[in-house]
User: What shape does this take?
Amino acid sequence: MKELSAKVLVLGDQGVGKTSMIVRYAQQVFNDNSTPTIGAAYFESFEEVGDRRLKLKIWDTAGQERFKSMIPMYYRNSKAALIVFDITNSASFLAAQKWATELHQHIEEKLVLFVVGNKADLSKARKVKQSDANAYAEMIGGHFREVSAFSNEGIREMFMDLCVKLIHET
Ligand code: GDP
Ligand code: MG
Assistant: This one.
């Protein structure tokens, strides 16, 4: 079976649920290789898609995101990025645009990009319209997904979608 591996970045403001999303998805394999020097933590997960085995190397931020900037090494050799916001927090959605800019300043290669609205379980307190998030994702060449790390809604589907796109687009 052909093996591929891909580095996946997870960006977004503090508190949007990045770590919760990753832990929800990658709970089967947890690599506590926290690297405080670069303000990141690293998770691994394996998926089979068709005749391919794909290793996702998921890079979480570890507090560094409060500076709204990660060091260049964090971005190196990444193939995909999830830019996460909280659907109940408009500021976190505005910040997604800042994260997308930051990302494109560090990476010139084509990336598989998802704009992810987390906390879908709190849709009664929604502050960000799905249509706005969708339009924004399209504008930056990404795909919009709404998920909940809390209820687990859409999490696995999103990561599987990501795997399929990684195999087809990179
Ligand atoms: P990070 O700073 O982006 O890594 O965010 P965390 O994963 O640490 O989550 C921040 C807070 O949001 C925590 O209190 C989580 O329990 C909460 N949280 C994360 N995801 C969800 C979600 O989908 N729904 C709800 N209601 N709370 C969430
Ligand atoms: Mg975190």
